[in-house]
Amino acid sequence: MSASNAQRFDPGFPSSQRTALSRRVVLKGALVGAGVLALPQILGACGDDDEATTTTAAPGTTGGGTGEVTSTELEVFSWWTGGGEAAGLDAMIAIWNSQYPNTKFVNAAVAGGAGSNAKAVLAQRLEANDPPDSFQGHAGAELSDYIKAGQVEELNSYYEEWGLGDVFPSDLVDQITVDGKIYSVPVNIHRANVLWSNPTVVADAGITATPESFDDFIAALDKVKAAGKTPLALAEQWTVKHLMETVMISKLGAEAWAGLWTADGDWSSADVTDALEGFKTLFGYVNSDYASLTWQDAAKRVVDGEAAYNVMGDWADGYFTELEKTPRTDYDWAPVPGTAGVYDWLSDSFTKAKGGKHPDATVAWLKLCSSKEGQDAFNPVKGSIPARKDADTSKYGVYLQSAMEDWKTATLAGSLAHGVVASNAWNTDIDGALGLFLEDKDVAAFQDALLTAHDTYAV
Ligand code: GAL
Fold first, then answer.
1. What is the pTM of this model?
2. CATH class of 34-190+347-400
């Protein structure tokens, strides 16, 4: 990053105010775990066969200097159907509809937080050579799966044409690049390690300070339990993995966390055992019906005053905003205890699928995703900070403004549950192990299974 970039507002990956070494190590861990550094150059030129039509774009909106948009539709695949998430996508669809009234936006979103159902549907479609035009893929290891499989196209020429070289944090671009080729457009940066709380429930339980360490957290949970409310609202299995990741980062620290995703990662260590034991402890404080809840159900229990805490990504802020809740009054936030100064990050990015039927519209969509207008419409509603470094901060609410501040100085840790540090296949093995753990709560067996998964996939 250049000095001039670092001086202006920069939610990017600035290294000036944090330890550059740890930041770099943490990111490298993600890249090596993803196999990104070792990937060969695999993709060729665009081979789309467009459905040519006679449709014209609205005046002055020709897909960003890439030619007129003549396709009659654009199919975009994501998993944003629920509270807060659909609203973010809708904000971009509204811009699309005003710019391209003759090109129908086909919203192919598949319900299920974190892509728990969507990724399987997407895999089937890609396998069957029936790709949507553009699909959501997390920056990092998850995107590298699609790159390795030759399922997404290189976008370098558009980055050049749209002047994107400078607008995204360079280390984020590294996470979507293989051998100098860039394969997606990041729309946002999310934070996963957020402890959402209900200020009234917390105060009524006699908790006077925000828990800062894992032990503080357990003490606070005990107080809520004694007061008769649900201490920690939890939902379906991907949210359990999300919780586990934040506990591991809390117990191990960001650097050791990053190391776990490298070939040398030591999953058999006593520190990992301790982290998993800590994670197990939390099951003494969660709602018993968690397996049947969505992330929105669990988050809502906090703002409804039924539960004190919920660990969830900052898409929860988008949901609370949609519910018209007041920040700092109806809900509050803090880093997951033990993770202050760490940004457990992930980034949603959109691709140009190889073999997509509407390449002209896809390029126009990606240009919208990359634009300041698009990002400043999407992110304030979605509950994420923009990937672009030149956002109009006045458009963002109290939580997101605080997240932008934190981002400037935080040490980064890549998310497991949201595709940064481990491939889809590695995640699937971890999901299987976690499923068994939820049945038997056998930490030793769980740790063994996690070690096996590491040895299978780490490169
Ligand atoms: C993440 C995704 C977020 C949010 C969340 C819950 O994987 O990156 O944008 O949608 O899942 O569904």
1. 0.88
2. alpha beta
